[in-house]
Amino acid sequence: MDPRRALQDWVHAADVRVLKPVIDATSSFAKFREACAHLKHGAFGKLVVKVRNQ
């Protein structure tokens, strides 16, 4: 498959929400160091760091 076409297919899938990120954990910005340590220990998915409380 053409690399450009593969990228276009991937972007399209993300646009129609076929792809969903795997979120391993969420953390406040105040606990950023602990969150980074969690990643170093082999987190499976993404880490979300909240910058503002809402």
Description:
By secondary structure, this protein is an alpha+beta fold. It has a domain of about 35 residues. Helices cover about 40% and strands about 20% of the residues. It has a two-stranded parallel sheet. The longest helix has 13 residues.
Spell out the blueprint of helices and strands:
Layout: H1 3-15, E1 23-28, H2 32-40, E2 46-50
Parallel strand pairs: 1-2
Give the gist of this structure.
This protein is α+β, with helices and mostly antiparallel strands and 54 residues long. It has helices at residues 3-15, 32-40, and strands spanning 23-28, 46-50.
How far apart the termini lie comes to 43 Å
Fraction in beta strands = 15-25%
Q: What global shape is seen?
A: elongated
**Helical segment count:** 2
Major beta sheet summary: 2 strands, parallel
Structural class label: alpha+beta
Mean model confidence by pLDDT: 86
Rounded to an integer, what's the Rg over CA atoms? Answer: 16 Å
Order the strands across the largest sheet as they lie in space.
Answer: 1-2
Q: How much helix, percentage-wise, in residues?
A: 40-55%
